[in-house]
Amino acid sequence: MPTYKIAIVGAGPAGYFTAQALQKAQTEELVFAIDMIERLPTPWGLVRSGVAPDHPKIKTVSKVFEKIAKEPNFRLFANVELGKDISLKDLRDQYDAVVLATGASRGRKLGIPGEDLTNSLSAADFVPWYNSHPDYVNTEVDLSSDTAVVIGAGNVAMDVARILAIDPTELDPTDVADHALVKLKQSNIRTVIICGRRGPEHAAFTAPELRDLPKLENTDVYIDSKQIQDAESRIAALSEIEKDLKNNLEAMRLIADHSKKGVERKLEIKFLAAPIEFKGNNKIEEVVFAQNKVEKLIQKSEDQCDLVSLLFKSTLKFDQGKIEKIIRKSISDIGVEQTWVEVISPLLILVGDEWVRTGTGIEIEHFLSEVLRKILSENLGTISRPKNSRPVLLACVENEMHSLALLVLAAVLAEARIECIFLGARTPQSALNQVIIKSAPPAIFLWAQLSENADHKYVKSMPSIRPAPRVLLGGPGWKTSKVAASNKLVMTEGLRDAREQIIEALAV
Q1: How far apart are the C-alpha atoms of 171 and 454, rounded to whole Å?
Q2: How far is CA 480 from the centre of its chain?
Q3: In a 10 Å sphere around its CB, with 0-12 CB exposed, 13-18 middle and 19+ buried, how is residue 1 labelled?
Q4: Rounded to two decimals, what is the model's pTM?
Q5: How does pLDDT run across 380-403, given as a tens digit for each residue?
Q6: Are strands 273-279 and 286-291 parallel, antiparallel or unpaired?
Q7: Backbone phi, psi, residue 131, to 5°
Q8: What is the residue-averaged pLDDT of the chain?
Q9: Domains along the chain?
């Protein structure tokens, strides 16, 4: 009975759910010995450092992790840092497979003037600060102003605003970081404003989070009832309204109508306010907003203006039929390339953000990836009268597992009647070379998502054929590689550039 040794780097939700999937896949003939490697002294990642301390119920997912850890053939090695205490090469030498589940720790920039002033802080820094993450204990948090502005309309924004707005004594029974509690008790902030750039109907808050706000003992919560009325009027034109949307607006309505206590602390939620500039000397003293406007919502929900939001909700419900219907219609209307840029890519970002926010969701990402693969693969190999006499070769380099972007390129080329040989993920050098010799492709596109997979030897070891193909390199992994661009070796920038370079190669 073979036992496969698996190393999982990262002890957050992604790592644990990967371990769980492996454990469930075991049979009498197949056994996995799992070693989990974590840089920090404690496991659980964002479940420990990304959940607000006054919402402990969300952390109960840790019971699932404890069950996973109790299974035979599971070991956790904490305080071990990849690249310092052990190298990726060491892991690859010692294990049959290595899974990198390290997550993303940096917050996003808004890209507006004044963002770098000293009292502008990302939630990716603030949340772990009050959750005792060792990397963020010394984060500079300025609470000297009487007003704080939180930009965003999701549950993370809600958590941040609530922590700033509530009486800090309400946090005494929680596991909030001691240093954060001391600082919050010294805070001058009495007004917190949450700003969302779109309307209430587009907010990513969840109804349970909204319903908790009026329960705050020492904080009044405000929402402009007219903004809720306007949103209700806009969705009334829809033939179908999502249950979650109804629940959200109902919860917002209750906040707007809830009687106020007349206390000093205030939390206000504003919509249709897009930040365009931060002003101040040394630190932010003023936030400049542009007033947005929702013109209309299209009659049919599957065609409504917030298509990505609808897809996201369908993804969370594992509604494959609806996802396929919406994306196929989008491809029919605007094509594969535009659908990827305007619909699929933003959807994948939302799914990734949900993973970061909740600490869960690897199953959602895997589900969505497989649905997308099914849709994008439908037109491959069915091209009538292709424009090229010899097919273009598309492949991921050896060890590269991420092939979705490559599949998108294949679908874009198929739409343009360009025939391809699609080899997919983890293409061995020997296999690639055989296909090159047998098919003599006019262009070869090699994808590398991760820098450690972008090996220049992979390119140099390709066989020489006549006529010489144009070799195109795509993916962020190549940006730090040692491969030098030339007339026959081109670094591509994005999907459109890759398509145009291939078309140009076919014309030579």
Answers
A1: 48
A2: 23
A3: exposed
A4: 0.58
A5: 877 778 889 999 999 999 989 999
A6: antiparallel
A7: -105, 15
A8: 87
A9: 3-100 (3.40.50.720), 123-291 (3.50.50.60), 306-377 (1.10.1240.10), 392-507 (3.40.50.280)
